[in-house]
Design goal:
It is built from 17 helices and 42 strands. A hairpin with a 3-residue loop joins β10 and β11.
Length: 652
């Protein structure tokens, strides 16, 4: 076994690898960029080496610098995590040329599966079913349009070097093909440096089921399947294992196909074979097709670990150090059911826009597995993926595990950034998902309902009023302020005003006794009592918690509700914008500007493309009008809120 390894990554996956290495007595070296100097993975590792600036191209993608860091610190091997250099065959070769061990597959295996078109051809030779489509090298747009017509609409355009939904477009009719192709190629070029695409038949009731495989370069086993059908914008949201509705014959067929795929390329380490599955009439042995192979550890690997009892990172280290497969296929079995939810800093109602912010508060329940790379006080940076954590639950049945996930989400507390927490909770309560009726279109069909932000009820607002009145806690911590407001004389009401979603709330508070208050909100009133650190509202015990952070206050009660203090000196001090400015919704890089001063635009026209957090975002005109000024240029790095396009005043 290695004495010391270097983790060529950051965030939760770096922390995950460090934790297993520690239990195995293996020393760890972290690498970090300028903005990650105080990151959790740096704190957890035995050693840490600075490798460059915030931009990934200047730090986590600098293979030569990372390799030198491993040599300088005496590390014997490099674990790539996922993303960044994890599927870069040139990096693998450079690691091995330096006399180090790459904890993962060979460069040859990565190349074999690196381009989707070549991988599909290889899988056909290995007897693995593949989706009908065009995987050739001719990238002429007219020729690709002909191929799409032959395959039959709807079709899916996919970047051959793609992943994470980038460079992927669904085309439902011929008239939309040219625009979708240009968009997919442009995003693929930006994300991967390769604009080539392939075209596949789009399965109308698709499920995304993947099989975890593990090889030692000669032999391979599978660790059963995961269902990743719950997706938005082709990115996974909640994963589960095993797949609902799976039968033993289909599981065996998919598992055997996945093992054949792994053996065909002499695969070593952890990998995933992804299948697109026709879910229109139940799962069938002839109803699944190979999509791609991820030649690395997957983000969703915890659900597989939960149902098998296997530590996949431990297996990776053991096989990379020279051991054979740690278990045979007959040794592996499924126990219970598991779910994983991905908690992101993102604005769901705004279209899942990535968000930034400093986490003023972050707390998780004790009865769920939490994989995270951040802590209270950490910043969600615009430079990297905005994942906050993964929450994994495991129970004896699917229903139990899903209920556990719902409870874990409702007891998770995040303040300082908008998140998808309420969205995830809504998903766990979705009737179809609860019944196991899932496909990749579920979120899209019910998005309006699922994306609804929960609204704080009057009971929650009453707690917020007490928080702003200083009758609940000190800044950032709960204080059992039982005597707050207690008086021997007649209770004297006080009025507290604060903001909720931009609306001013006025609350009249009367302290009745130690820890007992009456809160009036217009015509509604609640009696609120605090005993032994627990809130009772109108006599009913709650799990509510109140946290104040400067001018912001959060009430965590099933969901997190954010309220803001009112600065009386600031009232009326700012005039509202008249809808004439198109501003950057987040920090990022301007990839393209499509308009000039004097140009006429109509509502929905694309004005600029902003690249942020590894995704391209089109900013559209919110109304008809004429461009008065262009306040930015291609290549500009802009901050959140920066004005980009100004429209002339609308005629009244």
């Amino acid at each position: 076994m290695f004495a010391k390894i270097l983790i060529a990554n950051r965030g939760e996956i770096a922390c995950r690898v460090i934790e297993t290495a520690r239990t195995m007595g293996v020393g760890t070296v972290a690498v970090y960029s300028d903005v990650d100097a105080g990151a959790r993975h740096v704190a957890l590792a035995d050693q840490a080496v600075h490798i460059g600036a915030a931009a990934p191209a200047e730090s986590y993608l600098r293979g030569d610098v990372i390799i030198q860091a491993a040599l300088d610190t005496g590390a014997e091997a490099i674990h790539p995590g996922y993303g960044f250099l994890s599927e870069n065959p040139q990096f693998v070769e450079a690691v091995e040329a330096a006399g180090l061990v790459f904890i993962g597959p060979s460069a040859k295996a990565i190349r074999a599966m690196g381009l989707k078109d070549a991988a599909k051809a290889l899988m056909e030779e290995a007897g693995v079913p593949v989706v009908p489509g065009y995987h050739g090298s001719n990238q002429d747009s007219a020729y690709l349009a002909e191929q799409a017509a032959q395959i039959g609409y709807p079709v899916l355009i996919k970047a051959v070097a793609g992943g994470g939904g980038k460079g992927m477009r669904l085309v439902e009719k011929e008239s939309e093909f040219d625009a979708a192709l240009a968009s997919a190629q442009g995003e693929a070029k930006t994300a991967f440096g390769n604009a080539d695409v392939l075209i596949e038949k789009y399965i109308t009731s698709p499920r995304h089921i993947e099989v975890q495989v593990f090889g030692d370069g000669t032999d391979a086993v599978h660790l059963f399947e995961r269902d990743c059908s719950l997706q938005r914008r082709h990115q996974k949201v909640i994963e589960e294992a095993p797949a609902p509705g799976m039968t033993e014959d289909v599981r065996a067929a998919m598992g055997n196909a996945a093992v054949r795929a792994a053996k065909a390329i002499g695969y070593a380490g952890a990998g995933t074979i992804e299948f697109i599955v026709d879910g229109s009439d139940g799962l069938r042995t002839d109803g699944f097709w190979f999509m791609e192979m991820n030649t690395r550890l997957q983000v969703e690997h915890p659900v597989t670990e939960a149902i098998t009892g296997v530590d996949l990172v431990e297996w990776q280290l053991r096989v990379a150090s020279g051991e054979g497969l740690p278990a045979s296929q007959s040794d592996l079995a499924i126990k219970g059911h598991a779910f994983e939810a991905r908690l992101y800093a993102e604005d769901v109602p705004a279209g899942f826009l990535p968000a930034t912010g400093t986490l003023s508060h972050l707390e998780f329940p004790q009865d769920a597995r939490i994989d995270t790379g951040v802590r209270t006080g950490d910043e969600i940076s615009p430079w990297y993926d905005p994942m906050i954590a993964k929450l994994t639950t495991h129970g004896p049945t699917r229903a139990v595990a899903l209920k556990q996930l719902e409870q874990a989400l409702t007891r998770t507390e995040v303040a300082g950034s908008v998140t998808n927490l309420a969205f995830l909770t809504s998903l766990t309560r979705h009737k179809g998902f609860r019944a196991g009726v899932v496909d990749t279109g579920l979120i899209g069909r019910d998005l309006e309902h699922l994306a609804e932000e929960p609204v704080a009820c009057s009971r929650t607002r009453a707690l917020a009023a007490l928080g702003f009145a200083g009758l609940t806690e000190a800044v950032g911590e709960v204080v059992d302020n039982e005597s707050a407001g207690f008086t021997l004389w007649e209770p004297v009401p006080q009025t507290i005003t604060f903001l909720y979603n931009g609306e001013e709330i006025a609350a009249r508070i009367t302290t009745l006794a130690a820890g007992e208050h009456r809160v009036e909100l217009g015509e509604t009133a609640h009696n609120v009592t605090r005993r032994a650190g627990i809130w009772f509202v109108d006599g009913a015990k709650t799990r509510a918690r109140v946290r104040r952070f400067g001018e912001s206050l959060s009430v965590f009660w099933g969901n997190g509700y954010v309220f803001e203090a009112i600065d009386p000196l600031a009232r009326g001090g700012a005039a509202e914008e008249g809808g004439n400015i198109v501003a950057a919704p987040m920090p990022g890089l301007l990839k393209a500007v499509f308009v000039k001063p004097g140009a006429k635009v109509t509502e929905g026209d694309r004005l600029v493309i902003l690249e942020a957090m590894k995704m391209e975002h089109s900013l559209l005109a919110s109304r008809d009008g004429v461009v008065a000024d262009v306040l930015c240029g291609e290549g500009d790095q802009v901050v959140a809120g920066a004005p980009l396009i100004q429209l002339e005043e609308a005629e009244i």
